[in-house]
Amino acid sequence: MSRIHIYLNLCNTYKMNLAIIGATGLVGEEMLKVLDQRKIQFTSLTLVSSKKSIGKSLNFQEKSYQLISIEDAFEKELDVAIFSAGKEVSLNWAPVFSKKGVTVIDNSSAWRMDTTKKLIVPEINGDELTHNDKIIANPNCSTIQMLVAIAPIHKKYGITRVIISTYQSITGTGRIALNQLNNEYNNIDGEMAYKYQIHQNAIPHCDDFEDNGYTKEEMKLINETHKILDPNISVTATAVRVPVMGGHSESINLTLEKSFDLIEVKELLAQSKGIVLEDDPENFKYPMPINARGKDEVFVGRIREDFSCENSLNLWVVSDNLRKGAATNAIQILETIISKGFIN
After folding, report:
1. Structural domain of 33
2. pLDDT at 120 over 90
3. Distances (CA, A) of 73 to 55, 80, 108
4. Which pLDDT band holds residue 14 (cuts at 50, 70, 90)?
5. pTM of the model
6. pLDDT tens-digit readout, 124-134
7. Which among 118, 183, 222, 329 could disulfide-bond with 188, CB atoms 3.0 to 4.6 Å apart, if both were Cys?
8. Are residues 18 and 46 in the same domain?
9. How far is CA 131 from CA 45, 116, 127, 240, 282, in A?
10. d(Cα 159, Cα 232) in Å, to the nearest integer?
11. Residue 344 confidence (pLDDT)
């Protein structure tokens, strides 16, 4: 039996006690979809919600689950808890769960830059995980799709500099942003996720501004690239929120250590795990968020040489931020620790 078949067999038959912390949020909902689609098996499933939803029921795989508090979840016998309930919840509760022996996969920013925690994109550094990693950080959504796309290029050619501009879906802000856009479409007054109208607009402001003039989202792209891929890569970023519901898009400019052949670059990406190459501009084929919505892959196209700088090229990268950018990457981390036999 091949290693791949053993891995799939483990993922499809392994039993565990699993909790989703933040099950009713946009990412939590996607996690349940991904669990179902990837046929992750569990002995028990615990679903935790915010206070306003505690006691309500949620249907999953033809079974009704009562939503409970995180305090009640802590009293249960759990093997894995996937957190997607915000930074403060993760800071307060992830250490408590992990000390109890629960493996925590955290989707917030709480632990990403903690030097004692692994920041994991399974296609890139999943092999770094050990049995001792009890809090595992899920990177920022825009970082994940960028690094999946450029990691194979860095491995072969060496990247010295990255210039990235993002065009990020409103779903990255949560349900309140989705409601704002829908209200604006329909000329309805309602709660605002952003200071400004998002319909027919582009807002160069993702997350809070830092003292250096960059937003936290932009600094995540820089800092997380250094931690996951290579601290010697120079990175600069501009992050923009756009009125799109189904995925993030990124314009990426790379400067490489070595010369390259565009055909070889395209072949490399087409053969790389987690990537779908869509690069046929003559036939109007290129990545778009409307086509990436609901899919787990990272789509790459518009690959072309940057004639203004030696050994440089441009990429257009698109992925569903709720899927590969959050839920799917977390479930892939779960699959990785299952395949390594780390769940007792």
Report:
1. 3-139+326-339
2. yes
3. 13, 11, 19
4. low
5. 0.93
6. 999 999 999 99
7. 183
8. yes
9. 22, 14, 11, 38, 49
10. 9
11. 60
Q: Report whether pLDDT(2) > 70.
A: no
Catalytic annotation present for 11: no
Same domain, 299 and 334: no
- Give the model's pLDDT for residue 45: 97
Nearest alpha carbon to residue 164 among 214, 104, 99, 112: 214
pLDDT score of 5 more than 70: no
214 in the same domain as 109: no
Active-site annotation holder among 11, 154, 206, 248: 248
Q: Is residue 60 within 8 Å of 32, Cβ to Cβ?
A: yes
Please name the residue that has the structure tokens 């990247």. 159
Burial 20-36 (b: 16+ CB within 10 A, else e): bbbbbbbbbbbbbbbbe
Same domain for 176 and 106: no
Per the annotation, the verdict on 248 as an active-site residue is yes
Quick one: DSSP state of residue 138? P
Measured from the Cβ of residue 293, the count of other Cβ atoms closer than 10 Å reads 19
Whether residue 6 has pLDDT greater than 80: no
Look at the chain and report how many structural domains it folds into.
Answer: 2
From the candidates 141, 199, 205, 309, which is the catalytic residue?
141
**Is 344 inside a domain boundary?**
no
> How high does pLDDT run on average in the chain?
94
Angle at 311 between CA 254 and CA 256, to 5 degrees: 50
